[in-house]
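Data card: per-record layout.
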Amino acid sequence: MRRTQLYLDDQLWKALHTRARTEGTTVSELVRQTVRKRFLGDLDERRKAMLAFVGSRQESSKAPGATAYIRRLRRGSRLDRLAKP
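The structure for this 85-residue chain is written out next.
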């Protein structure tokens, strides 16, 4: 963990202290939670998104003709074009 300093206006400072007292935590922890949520996203949301992505990949690979379709896309004269000087 790294240490940093922030300059906060009085209104924000008071709001953070009030919230910290209400939640029984520190201002530092509130700032860490907020920054984590804002820049890294909510862990549960990231997990759901990843599972949805993985699930969609599994479903599409089971789709009839998916393999044949991909092989058709890969076919072509690319190797012939690369071999020409």
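Known properties of this structure: The radius of gyration is 26 Å. Residues 33 and 39 are 10 Å apart (CA to CA).

See the next section for split statistics.
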